[in-house]
Design goal:
- It is a single chain.
- The protein is an alpha/beta fold and 386 residues long.
- It folds into 2 domains: 314 residues, Divalent-metal-dependent TIM barrel enzymes (TIM Barrel, Alpha-Beta Barrel), CATH 3.20.20; 60 residues, no CATH class.
- Helices cover 48% and strands 10% of the residues.
- The chain contains 16 helices and 10 strands.
- The strands form 2 sheets. Strands 8-6-4-3-2-1-10-9 form an 8-stranded parallel sheet. Strands 5-7 form a two-stranded antiparallel ribbon.
- Helix 5 links the parallel strand 3 and strand 4.
- Helix 9 runs parallel beside helix 10.
- The mean pLDDT is 98.
- The structure holds D-gluconic acid and manganese (II) ion (2 copies).
- One manganese (II) ion binds next to loops.
Length: 386
């Protein structure tokens, strides 16, 4: 029941399980795993697919023939092990050329190079059959506001995305573009820091229908926000194209913890939201094993992400089938057909009737909605005693 299968659509980036455990204070603690080995291991564990940055696969200094050899080998591994390349993206953060931004850089040469690099990376993603193309603007931000006028930064980002949407169309790639907000790290402040900000920005693009979101659990949590609410807003806007699952303590550095490792209740309501809403996209674990771990720990980490998701999925089904929980929910959602009819679909008569209506306010003020019991039952369900 908790065994991952391709139909569950679990994916991992090459950079996630491939993370060697470097941090700002210390050197790597694990040796590098080759992309083809990662493909083999993920397939064995029951994943659906793998994701990559251009340079996770092809080193930036590779010549044309080396590139072709690497890509051919990787394609072969995907087909041998039956794994899909689901999402591709561009590394626009590692090279010092991007130290002050890529698409938003104040230097026109850097901006042009960011487009050049992204188009080549899109070609690679298309060649490998990716359906989604992610834009995470890790360096698109600032530490000081003295240099960059933020309005210029936003205008440049819009220009770049409009250009790349046209390239997507012109080449017939049909990628779904997914923008990934993050409040900070590596920049002091990153532009468009949260889901709501990104949704507002998408509406200003030339092809908003081509562009949606790739929200990440850790990113809204770093900002102290409720990730489940953010994802609900993305779903409501028809913009949940892709999702990055992991975990994070509020107020800490970017931790990229195993899914469900920290905020179990939020993880539960997130899985419930994804499953109940019929989200059909990939479930990408953008996280990595603790720096303390060896390779065995890496695969424990990967198994743990998927297993916890499936356990929470089963808990969500139990929640939906639990008679006491459902009775509490039914009582919580108070119906009043006459008032509901008056309150929707404006007419002058309805407005007049509503204005004249006498409400029993003392009764409304007295009523307790039963949330303590409902929440306690949720906790008991998660603790396994229901
Ligand atoms: C982070 C981001 C990245 C992106 C990745 C793909 O905090 O570093 O989450 O892992 O998701 O670059 O775009
Ligand atoms: Mn992240
Ligand atoms: Mn991410």
């Amino acid at each position: 029941m908790y065994t991952p299968k391709p139909e569950h659509k679990f994916t991992f980036g090459l950079w996630t399980v491939g993370n060697p455990g470097r941090d700002p204070f210390g050197e790597p603690t694990r040796t590098k795993l080759s992309p083809t080995y990662i493909v083999q291991k993920l397939a064995e564990l029951g994943a659906y697919g793998v994701n990559l940055h251009d340079n996770d696969l092809v080193p930036s200094d590779a010549g044309a023939s080396e590139r072709d050899r690497i890509v051919k080998e990787f394609k072969q591994a995907l087909s041998d092990y039956g794994l899909k390349l689901v999402m591709a993206t561009t590394n626009l953060f590692g090279d010092p050329v991007f130290k002050d931004g890529a698409f938003t850089s104040a230097d026109a040469r850097v901006r042009a190079y960011a487009l050049h690099k992204t188009m080549h990376a899109m070609d690679l993603g298309a060649e490998l059959g990716a359906e989604f193309y992610v834009f995470w603007g890790g360096r698109e931000g600032a530490e000081v506001d003295a240099g960059m006028n933020t309005l210029d930064g936003l205008a440049r980002l819009r220009e770049a995305l409009n250009f790349l949407c046209e390239y997507n169309r012109d080449q017939g790639y049909n990628f779904k573009f997914a923008l990934e907000p993050k409040p900070n790290e590596p920049r002091g402040d990153i532009y468009l820091p949260v889901v709501g900000a990104m949704l507002g920005f998408i509406a200003t693009l030339d092809h908003p229908e081509m562009v949606g979101l790739n929200p990440e659990f850790a990113h809204e949590t770093m900002a102290g926000l409720n990730f489940v609410h953010a994802v609900a807003q993305a779903i409501d806007a028809g913009k949940l194209f892709h999702i990055d699952l992991n975990d994070q303590k509020i107020g800490r550095f970017d931790q990229d913890l195993r899914f469900g490792a920290e905020n179990l209740k939020s993880a539960f309501f997130l899985v419930k939201l994804l499953e109940d809403s019929g989200y059909a996209g990939p479930r990408h674990f953008d996280a990595h094993a603790l720096r303390t771990e060896d390779e065995a720990g890496v695969w424990e980490f990967a198994k743990g992400c998927m297993r916890t998701y499936l356990i929470l999925k089963e808990k969500a089904a139990r929640f939906n089938a639990d008679p006491e929980i459902q009775a509490l929910l039914a009582a919580y959602k108070v119906r009043d057909i006459a008032l509901e009819t008056l309150s929707k679909g404006y007419t002058r008569d309805k407005a007049a009737a509503l204005k004249a209506h006498l409400f029993d306010l003392p009764a409304l003020r007295r009523r307790g909605p039963g949330l303590e019991r409902l929440d306690q039952l949720t906790v008991e369900l998660l603790l396994g005693v229901r």
